[in-house]
Amino acid sequence: MLSKMPRSLLTGLSLTFALILWEIVGRHVDPIFGSHPLAIAEASVALIRSGAIFKALGESLQPFLVGYTAAVVLGVPLGLLLGRYRVFEALFGIYVTAGYAMPLVALVPLLTLWLGLGFAVKVAIIFLMAIFPVTINTWLGVRAVPKSLIDVGRALVAPDSVILRRIILPATLPYIVAGMKLAIGRAVVAMIIAEFFTSMAGLGAIIINSANNFDTATMFVPVFVLVMLAIGLTSLIGWIEKRVAPWQAEIAGRQES
Amino acid sequence: MGTVSLKNISRQFTINVDGKPHNVQALRDVSFDVNDGEMVALIGPSGCGKTTALRIVMGLQEPSAGQVTVDGVPIRGCGYDRGIVFQHAELLPWLTAFENVAFALEMKGIKGEEMRETAMRYLDLVGLKDSARRRPYQLSGGMQQRVGIARALAIDPKVLLMDEPFGALDAQTREQMQNELIDIQARTGKTVLFVTHDLDEAILLADRVVVMRKGEVAEIMQVNLPRPRHNDAALLRMPEYAELRYRLWSSLHQEAA
Hints:
heterodimer; A: mainly alpha; MetI-like fold; globular; B: alpha/beta; Rossmann fold; 2 domains; six-stranded mixed β-sheet; 36% helix
């Protein structure tokens, strides 16, 4: 029965059920230790009326967009080079692998020493968290490009740069998009970490301030905004992928029902 | 002009089997010519080196020893004097049929109106003018291979190389494509070297059949059936056809006997 329902209906049902359950359980919890959807909705209305949530969202989005865009713009070419050139991979691959595994939070104090507490350090933290998934996915994607497609370029005497740009890059696009989606989640986390550890601003500031005032319901509002932001941006990337790479959905063997 | 000569081509490579290196002699001292305007079939059991020989002629692989010349000039890698049709078409999935053909022309440095006009002309030649804007996944296997043929012919090579071009198609489509190839070759006068494991295909299409066994040329057979040939009852009922087919079959089965 479930397999015949449209996807959006299934997701909606699941969400409704989860919210009702939370409302029932959350009402019995001390409002300092937890909250429930209706209380959070009330707190949202207050933050929307005062405009505080929009101002905070704006403050958070600026370094987010700069850092994330830089991560994609630099991460994709880096991944292409790592995947394509054995020597480049042997020389620099280790740093990318290490950078991905590194607990970046541990470096935040050092970054603030270098870059201060302002806009630059936030961009740097977001950039460093977002670039590795983009690079690693691109890297793996290039290595998965069938040799037979590269032979098409070679047989046409295409120079290496043309093979990279016109064959390997489009063939790697699904991997790049997957990396960009993973990077959204990491960049959102990085944005909040940056706001906690550097100058208090944006959505992170609302979280910290309301938590310090034991206003748990208000604290949940920016958390929801962040979740919706991440989901929204991820679907935006998926939508863009369908527009620029319509062939991908057609050749993938996914069960669409 | 378009005379291809293989002179004492050998090729060995090393493969790892259970972690131990094994030397494989893919080709040993292979020599034969394909004359201008001639169609030559390379036939032999799986693993006899026929595809390796074709890839060496294209320049996609280097011989360990020996030399390939086109009109007396030794080849250096791939070149526009040779065009290749791959077994599985290998169209770029993100490009339309038209764009796949145009890509080859662009690589050769043909641009603008000339590129558009030439690409359409070759799509027309293979009967796909009306499907020019379709992407590969919107084309049947036979149509994809037609685009592959149009792409190879569009750069106007002296020699057309084909690696089991119809091997992945169903029997009916294969017959139809064989007839069309005969017509295309008659119209363009191209020199054609093609790999096949199909006896009937070899006799139907080729002027001469090069039989390969274990990396060596075992025999070269002349096909003296009248042209134009077509895959029809008249040809199949010729005593010469049956005689030739039997001789070829015996040659291929010698090793087993």
